[in-house]
Amino acid sequence: MKVFRDFEGTETIKNAVVTTGSFDGVHLGHKVIINNLINSTKEIGGESVLVTFYPHPRKVLYPDTIGKNLMLINSQKEKIELLKKTGLDNLIIVTFTIEFSKMSSVDFIRKILVGKLNARKIIIGFNHHFGHNREGDFEHLKQLSSYHNFIVEEIPEQDIQNESVSSTKIRKALLEGNIQRANAYLDHQYIIIGKINKSVDKWHKYGFKVYSIEVEEECKLIPPCGIYAVHLNINSTNIKGMAIINNTLNSSQKSVNFHLFNDIPSIIGNEGTLYFHKLIRFIDCNIENNDWNSIFYADKEKIEELIY
User: Fold this and answer.
1) Distance of alpha carbon 129 from alpha carbon 249, whole angstroms
2) Is 90 exceeded by the pLDDT of residue 251?
3) pLDDT per residue over 59-70, tens digit each?
4) Residue 179 falls within a domain, yes or no?
5) Which strand (E) or helix (H) includes residue 138?
6) Are residues 290 and 207 in the same domain?
7) Number of H helices and number of E strands within the chain?
8) In what order do the strands lie in the sheet with 2-5?
9) Predicted TM-score of the model (pTM)
């Protein structure tokens, strides 16, 4: 997958089949859109293109209200890694600014989708809106499609377990510690990608080795204080372990602690990915208020059985 920052170099893309959106989580509904995108490229011998935005538009447009406390399922790095796995050909990350937000939907279609990308086909999700004040929609695209010689398709709303899939519902599940529900909506495991560090010294007295993984973006959503069944992927090796989310998240250096059941050398300073399987138990956010010996031995056994 080629990654473009804004539109420099995108003129090399041929017969573009395009979709746009935030795609936070790269969840089940997003994958339906991307799969349609990829299948459409095979029909016309083209390339799939996803146009997304950074920072998240709400962070820019409403920094003091709904954007202020908006937590995202993925950091930008995580979103790129997840999109790579879908088979997408091209990802364009547009710098979202107040000035960009003032572009009308007509100009977005004419200047970006047609002018920059020469889109042959545009695919959007159910009830998708774009352009200034979210004025653009499927009907708007349809009206302009014949004039600009592109095809437009809307993907119907996708359901899982009789509930609509949305990034909002996934965020709610994560904030409740319901990892399994979130993973079902995502169609993959919730992840944290970051640099691995030695954990703070206060963990040493509890008698087991604890590392930390850096959370690179402040707006990355972290589940509540608890013990979680996880595995770490680092250097193409998977190791079972437990994530220990506690009040270290209130510090200026946002990180998540974890313990591995089979320790491997030389992981400090390297980048790894924590994959979350299940909440084992909620814990007191204050590290000193927990019986760590009981938690460690009881939960290790549960997690060993859970992760195959």
Assistant:
1) 34
2) no
3) 999 999 999 989
4) no
5) helix 138-148
6) yes
7) 9, 14
8) 2-5, 90-95, 47-54, 16-20, 121-125, 151-155
9) 0.93
Tell whether 206 and 261 lie within a shared domain. yes
Pair of tokens at residue 281: 């138990």
Q: What is the per-residue pLDDT across 236-247, written as a single tens digit (0 to 9) for each?
A: 999 999 999 986
Tokens of 118: 């020469």
Residues 148 and 203 in one domain: no
Residue 183, SS3 per DSSP: helix
Q: 115: buried, middle or exposed (CB in 10 Å: 19+, 13-18, 0-12)?
A: middle
**Which residues lie below 8 Å from residue 117, measured CB to CB, with a gap of 6+?**
7, 10, 13, 16, 18, 49, 51
The full DSSP string for 34-99 is: HHHHHHHHHHHT-EEEEEEEES-HHHHH-TTTTTTT--BSS-HHHHHHHHHTTT-SEEEEEE--HH
* CATH number, position 239: 2.40.30.30
105: enclosing H helix or E strand: helix 105-107
Task: Please tell me whether residues 293 and 197 are part of one structural domain.
Answer: yes
- Provide the residue type at 247 as one letter: N
Q: Is residue 176 part of a domain?
A: no
Q: What is the average pLDDT value for the chain, to the nearest integer?
A: 91
For residue 121, which of 90, 97, 142, 152 has the smallest C-alpha distance?
A: 152
